[in-house]
Amino acid sequence: MSPADDAGNASNQEELGAGILEKITQLLASYLEQAKAGALPVLPHAAPDAMLERWDLPVPALGKGMEEACALLKRTLAQSNHLHHPRYIGHQVSAPLPLAAACDFISALLNNGSAVYEMGQVETVMEAHLVRWIAGLAGFEAELAGGLFTSGGSLGNLTALLAARQVIGKRKGLGDLWRDGYAPGGPRPAVLVSAQAHYCVSRAAQIMGFGEQGVVAVSTDAALRLDPAALPAAYEAARLAGREPIAVVASACSTATGSYDPLERIADFCAARDLWLHVDGAHGFGAALVPQYAPLLEGIGRADSLVWDLHKMLRMPALCTAVVFRDKTHSYATFAQDASYLFEGSAEQEWYNLGQRTIECTKVMMALKVFVCLQVYGTRYFADYIAGRYALAHRFYEVLRTSADFEAPVAPQANIVCFRHVPAEVPAAALDALQSSIRQKLIGSGKFYISQTRLPGGVHLRVTVINPFTQDSDLQALLTEIRGLTADGAQSGSAAARLRH
Ligand SMILES: Cc1ncc(COP(=O)(O)O)c(C=O)c1O
């Protein structure tokens, strides 16, 4: 059989199709225009089972050809959540810069895994320069600091806390936990964290074998920030329960309300008790770029580690997360493994072999898009974007605060606003159900995409002003829509009951 007869040897023509890349570029350009103009439903909502059915396509033995690619991609675009729609104000996922998405296309095609340097040399050095830049933003000493990129904030927090466990565990007499595991009957480590922290922090602690008791809740103040005055009691309670606290995890900012924990005072506490300070800046670290908001991060230079999701407030496609250590030697403490097929058993700290310090072996290329977009747009562009989104959220809060039929319990520090619709005719006991039904109606209508969360005062609607195209008028329209939904319900008796359907 000649190579030409071998169906496994696809020709260049077959692989590229007839102009398929140009067609996809055109498709994306017109999609983006429509999404940005709000000409599509934000989310063409369908129930999970109906969606499963819709996409139940038998896998054919003989492919349908390149035309099918366009048909499937068009279908995908039409049925997806449109993050560039001005009324996408839901979760903390960016509306990516088209240039960043284009870089991801190139990254995907290059597929330079970068577990070791020779697998992705450009990516490796770009990543190193970006880590240096982020360390500088945090105020870490350039020569001392170091870190890596990883696949998301959840993995980033786990990676940092693994280092904390190893470094502080040794200092607190828990031994070499990476090598030996936990001593039978010996004390287990614990982390101190507010209940407002993202769930991935307690998940990380439990993955590390701390158990539920190893996640010690620290109370919050009225603005749902970790209360540093509550740290000593939480610490003592943990020790009395036979736990050895090793770290405090501070949120900068928290997921539900975008509240920044007071880092300086938390750092004081950590210094006094020899604890690791990890800052989960997945959402809020971008404030470091904005002179007006950088004070929210005061004290971050004293953190031992930080995490930043650039797929949240830096307009990068997911996933793209930096984990940065004030002392880079700590990042090598996380894993100590021989893997002769990769690392040749080296005990050296090789900054350029990233897989030594990441949970991933093969890793998607994350640095290219950030590196290119920073060169093209400059930091000022991103600072203006972040400042603009924070300011819009603050204006929205003012509207809510001064409206009798809405309440917003926490003045936003970032771009996340939680609120409740509280029309006079709805009894207090029905308010939680009202918020949930409002959200379901909004999503079902395709007009807005917002999220919800439970705060101490009950169920709240939650808006993240992350989309660069959202304006005051969109948020005003959201309130008008919500009032309309409740009024419709009221006409037929019970607003909450009607909205539930
Ligand atoms: C503060 C915070 N930390 C961590 C995460 C988890 O990040 P990821 O979804 O990238 O795993 C989130 C996600 O919203 C977050 O808000």
Mean model confidence by pLDDT: 92
Hetero ligands: pyridoxal-5'-phosphate
Strand content: 5-15%
- Report the helical percentage: 40-55%
CATH superfamily of the domain at 108-374: Type I PLP-dependent aspartate aminotransferase-like (Major domain)
Q: Mind describing the biggest β-sheet?
A: 7 strands, mixed
CATH topology of the domain at 108-374: Aspartate Aminotransferase, domain 2
CATH class of the domain at 108-374, named Alpha Beta
Category from helices, strands and their pairing: alpha/beta
What is the correct CATH architecture of the domain at 108-374?
Answer: 3-Layer(aba) Sandwich
Low-confidence residue ranges: none
How do the strands of the widest beta sheet line up side by side? 1-7-6-5-4-2-3
Number of helices: 16
So what's the overall shape? globular
SSE topology string: HHHHHHEHHEHEHEHEEHEHEEHEEHH
CA-based gyration radius: 25 Å
User: How far from one another are the termini?
Assistant: 65 Å
Number of strands: 11
Summarize the structure.
This protein is α/β, with parallel strands linked by helices.
What does this structure look like?
With 501 residues, this protein is of the alpha/beta class. The protein has a domain at 108-374: Aspartate Aminotransferase, domain 2 (3-Layer(aba) Sandwich). It has 16 helices and eleven strands. It has helices spanning 12-16, 20-36, 48-54, 66-79, 98-110, 121-138, 153-171, 177-180, 199-207, 231-240, 263-273, 310-313, 367-401, 431-445, 472-491, 495-499; strands at residues 146-150, 188-194, 215-218, 243-251, 276-280, 305-309, 321-325, 406-407, 416-421, 451-455, 458-464. The strands form two sheets. The chain has a seven-stranded mixed beta sheet, sandwiched between helices. A four-stranded antiparallel beta sheet has the order 8-9-11-10. A hairpin with a 2-residue loop joins strand 10 and strand 11. The longest helix is centred in the last third of the chain and has 35 residues, at 367-401. The radius of gyration is 25 Å and the shape is globular. The chain starts with 11 loop residues before the first helix and ends with a helix. The relative contact order is 0.13. The model has no long low-confidence stretch (mean pLDDT 92). It binds pyridoxal-5'-phosphate. Pyridoxal-5'-phosphate (PLP) binds at residues 92, 152-154, 198, 200, 251, 255, 280, 282-283, 309, 319, 321.
